[in-house]
Amino acid sequence: MFDELGAKLDGALKKLRQRGVLTEPMITEGLREVRRVLLEADVNFQVTRDFVARVQERALGETVLKAVSPGQQIVKIVHDELARLFGEARPTLATKSDGPSVMLMVGLQGSGKTTSAAKLARRLGREGATPMLAACDLQRPAAIEQLQTLGVQIGVPVFAGDFGGDPVAVAVAARDQAAEAGHSVLIVDTAGRLQIDDELMGELGRMKDAVEPTEILLVADAMTGQEAVKIAEGFDEALGITGILMTKMDGDARGGAALSIRGVTGKSIKFIGVGEGMDDLDTADPERLAGRILQMGDVVGLVERAQVVIDEEAQAQLQEKVMGGRFTLEDFLVAMRQVQKMGPLDQLLKLIPGASRMKIPAGNLDPKRFKHIEAIILSMTPDERRKPEMLNGSRKARIAKGSGRPVAEVNRLLKQFKEMQGFMKQMRGMMSGAGGLPGMPFGP
Ligand SMILES: Nc1nc2c(ncn2[C@@H]2O[C@H](COP(=O)(O)OP(=O)(O)OP(=O)(O)O)[C@@H](O)[C@H]2O)c(=O)[nH]1
Ligand SMILES: [Mg+2]
After folding, report:
1. Measured on CA atoms in the order 70, 71, 72, 76, is the torsion positive or negative?
2. For the residues of 96-142, what is the DSSP string, one character each?
3. pLDDT digits (tens, 9 = 90+) for 142-195
4. What's the pTM?
5. Contact 200, 227 (CB under 8 A)
6. What is the pLDDT of residue 66?
7. How far is CA 42 from CA 45, 48, 79, in A?
8. Which of 218, 276, 282 to mutate to test the pocket of ligand 1 (most atoms within 8 A of CB)?
9. pLDDT of 299-346, one tens digit each?
10. Which atom of ligand 1 is nearest to the CA of 115?
């Protein structure tokens, strides 16, 4: 997400960052490059112009020229203004307390409505809501089935209409059913079209009047660039959307749509889809998105991800063992499996500040390497896992054979584990209570 844009912006800001003193012409020159990068990323022309003007004004204004570290100051201004492109604050969803809050998912064909409806249901369920899904795309029998399958997968009930039926009537019936069963949220999946047409808007308009949604979320595909912005304008004019759920941000979208959509439509992105999995939905927090673009990492995002997938009890136990100095290879295996659940390592690394500038050999992030380490540990006896110092030559040979890995690799793992224990000891000395997952060895 924003990889290319981030790298190019970093390049453009580098010159400014490195200078001890900044003059007005230097700033103007640097920002000209920023402007070029944004336009190349397909950011709307007007949005880009306003953005650069604001940064320039602030940079020349008060503090920067006299600041101790003027380059850093400019980066900070760029960061703040990027965040402002996304919105003023962390977005929220409107709800109501009497009866279910209805949320309509609308958008063009294939934008990700059905998938996102299910992701959102899962997310809200985790946050304490009792969601229900409504399948109101009745144009294709497969669309109903798709939502039902996702519903089973995430454990959320799905109210489905009949193929070919009236989507508005089904939405109303779903809302009544949700109210009766005491669901706090009803998320309605609707049919898509290839383009905006009167029939679709008419149908959605009637649905809106009938179920009075608290949110009408436009699901827009980031890969379509400025087209997504136009679509948002069209839906907003016809229906009055309350926010945008921008999907496929994990793809190689250049970022232009995400950065322009609020400036053009006045409506904020509330969520971003970052993959096909049911947990691949992030809150579109302006500060964090800006941080990601500037490759400052997103620790909050990392922590959120960890909270979603990591078993709290296992986490607490690990922490206790680390703090008590009783961390064994067995625990190491548990920790490693937890980390793997969080997603592909290369994706996770991007969330860590500075990690994108670290050059980690691709082979070390290879999921296969996890499998190898796992095989080695699993080839040990429970005693050996708890007391690796008992591993002599013949035991190591047996483990190597059992795991199908060379003895050298067994040795490497043991060495890394020992180093890790040493590191944990130091950490224990430094802190009293706080702690997280023990660090994973990246070195070969
Ligand atoms: N990579 C990625 N794929 C996504 C994302 N969101 C949705 N998809 C994929 O996009 C495809 C279309 O998603 P759907 O949810 O079926 O889209 P839809 O808008 O309901 O499509 P129609 O019902 O045909 O209009 C599926 O293969 C999804 O897995 C995302 O954030 N990232
Ligand atoms: Mg669909």
Report:
1. positive
2. -SSSPEEEEEE-STTSSHHHHHHHHHHHHHHTT--EEEEEE--S-HH
3. 889 999 999 999 999 999 887 778 899 999 999 999 999 999 999 999 988 777
4. 0.72
5. no
6. 58
7. 8, 10, 19
8. 276
9. 556 666 666 666 667 767 777 777 777 778 888 887 777 777 776 666
10. 15
Contacts with 116 (C-beta within 8 Å, 6 or more apart), sequence order: 105, 217, 219, 245, 247, 271, 273, 281
Alpha carbon of 178 to ligand 1 centroid (Å): 25
- Closest ligand to residue 108's CA: 1
Tell me the average pLDDT across 255-280: 92
Ligand 1: residue of 104, 106, 115, 139 to mutate (most ligand atoms within 8 A of CB) is 115
Cα–Cα separations (whole angstroms), residue 404 to 78, 353, 401: 52, 36, 5
Q: Is the CB of 139 under 6 A from ligand 1?
A: no
**Ligand 1 pocket residue status of 250, Cβ below 6 Å:** yes
CA–centroid distance, 346 to ligand 2, in Å, is 30
Q: Is the CB of 242 under 6 A from ligand 1?
A: no
Given a cut of 90, is residue 247 above it in pLDDT? yes
CA dihedral for 415, 417, 418, 419, sign (positive or negative): positive
- Residue closest via CA to ligand 1's atom 26 equals 112
- The DSSP call for residue 438 is P
Give the up-direction half-sphere exposure of residue 376: CA atoms within 13 A in the CB hemisphere. 25
> What is the average pLDDT across 407-429?
80
SS3 category, 443: coil
Asked if residues 159 and 133 have their Cβ atoms less than 8 Å apart, the reply is yes
State whether the beta carbon of 273 lies less than 6 angstroms from ligand 1: yes
Q: Are the C-beta atoms of residues 258 and 269 closer than 8 Å to each other?
A: yes
